[in-house]
Write a structure and sequence with these properties.
19 strands; Rossmann fold; 9-stranded mixed beta sheet; Alpha-D-Glucose-1,6-Bisphosphate, Chain A, domain 4; binds zinc ion
Length: about 400
């Protein structure tokens, strides 16, 4: 590695604290040990999944002879051991320098840290055991000048750390994972309420967890709000897609803003009770938007149910088989049936073999669409959304994912 470049860069590095010494080498220390760290801020979100893959690759390339394999910890951090070889003499004398290396990411960026440095001399006539690098400060801390060898060791350490940060910060795939964070593919805003039926609140929290993780992995922005006043023109302008997890707007201003959003090319995913409407909801536009579907009946208690997938080619249902069993949910029947609307494309239907479905409230028959889209809009309604079991089916989860991706396009 060309040492010249590293020394030029030294002055640019923002060290946390600098232990000056008579060699003029600034060695950063924290809690009395040599401690290097550098943070790389990232604005506007973070694709941690991609970042971890990129950082792991970088780690493998940077330390191919890693004595201990690094690993990704439970918190998603990368831990491992780095080793540098540092030449300290003109005749090929060198030290192995071993240290703990951590790569940590959070919502605002990522940080790389190196500490617990140990050195091992390969010089004839000296012990070949690892010992703490801080012991090499001993003479210096006692006010004695640094030996030529120690000076070379610390200069090498500092140059290699500088090179390491530079290599990490310039890694193309790490930069790429950061750049994609700046420009999410699309932005989603999920509305939910906490003062509604408990099972509907449970669903909202499960869904938020599910979609936040997915947003991280797929590179879109996923914001949530329980303040329905955020359903206004100025705010909706920032989003491509709106989700209603467990509620619908009750006041006129919010309803008008939503209509404008949808008419202007916005997209919508509604779950369960968010599509509920009856004679008391008094929102004719929304009934049309739902393809004419008005709530008719339901089963109670919530139960799992067999589904028929009407269309395996549609982007929302392309990963589903012809039939599957959906986890426990409260299922709604509709009158009029949205299938009667020529603009409606039904994607999933309640299998009639489920009937009679229920105990207290029993659905005894009928053609009951469960997932559909009104092709006049970019919208999908899914009847799932009651209770804490809805995300227990990997198959169905795929549909939950595919819907958000399709609507985000
Ligand atoms: Zn419900």
């Amino acid at each position: 590695m060309p040492k010249k470049i590293f020394f030029v860069l030294l002055i640019l590095l923002p060290f946390i604290s600098i232990a000056q010494n008579n060699t003029g080498i600034p060695i950063p220390m924290k809690k009395r040990i040599v401690f290097y760290d550098k943070s790389f801020p990232v604005e506007g979100g973070f694709i941690k999944h991609e970042f971890l893959i990129a950082a792991t690759k970088w780690f493998k390339n940077a330390f191919p002879g890693n004595a201990e394999p690094f690993h990704i910890g439970a918190s998603g951090d990368i831990n491992g051991t780095g080793i540098f070889k540092i030449n300290t003499g003109p005749t090929g004398d060198y030290y192995d320098l071993r240290f703990k290396l951590e790569i940590v990411s959070n919502d605002t960026g990522y940080t790389i840290r190196a500490y617990n440095f140990y050195e091992n001399s390969n010089i004839k006539g000296k012990s070949h055991e690892y010992s703490k690098i801080e012991y090499r400060w001993w003479d210096y801390r006692q006010g004695k000048p640094w030996s030529v060898e120690d000076k070379a060791l610390f200069m090498g350490l500092d140059a290699d750390m500088t090179a390491m940060f530079k290599s990490f910060g310039n890694d193309p795939s790490i930069i790429k994972s950061a750049r994609r964070m700046h420009t999410p593919k699309f932005k989603v805003l999920a509305f939910f309420s906490t003062n509604v039926e408990e099972d509907h609140v449970d669903f909202a929290y499960d869904a938020i967890k599910f979609y936040k993780k997915m947003a991280d992995q797929k590179g879109f922005a996923f914001d949530t709000t329980s303040n329905w006043e955020n359903l206004n023109d100025a705010n909706l302008e920032k989003y491509k897609e709106v989700i209603w997890l467990n509620e619908f707007p009750h006041n006129e201003a919010e309803r008008r803003s939503f209509e404008k959003f949808m008419d202007g090319g916005g997209s919508w995913l509604g779950f369960h009770v968010s599509g509920y409407n009856d004679k008391d909801t008094k929102w004719p536009w929304f009934v049309k938007f739902m393809g004419g579907a008005v709530f008719y009946n339901n089963n109670w208690p919530p139960l799992p149910a067999k589904m028929i997938v009407d269309d395996n080619k549609h982007s929302v249902t392309k990963h589903l088989p012809k039939t599957y069993t959906a986890p426990i949910n409260e299922w709604y029947g509709w009158k009029p049936n949205p299938r009667l609307n020529k603009d409606v494309k039904v994607l999933v239907t309640l299998d009639p073999s489920n009937y009679p479905l229920g105990k207290k409230d029993v659905i005894t028959g009928g053609d009951i669409p469960v997932v559909w889209t009104n092709t006049k809009y970019k919208m999908v309604y899914m009847n799932m959304g009651h209770g804490d079991m809805n995300f227990e089916s990997p198959l169905q989860n795929k549909m939950f994912e595919d819907a958000v991706l399709w609507l985000g396009k």
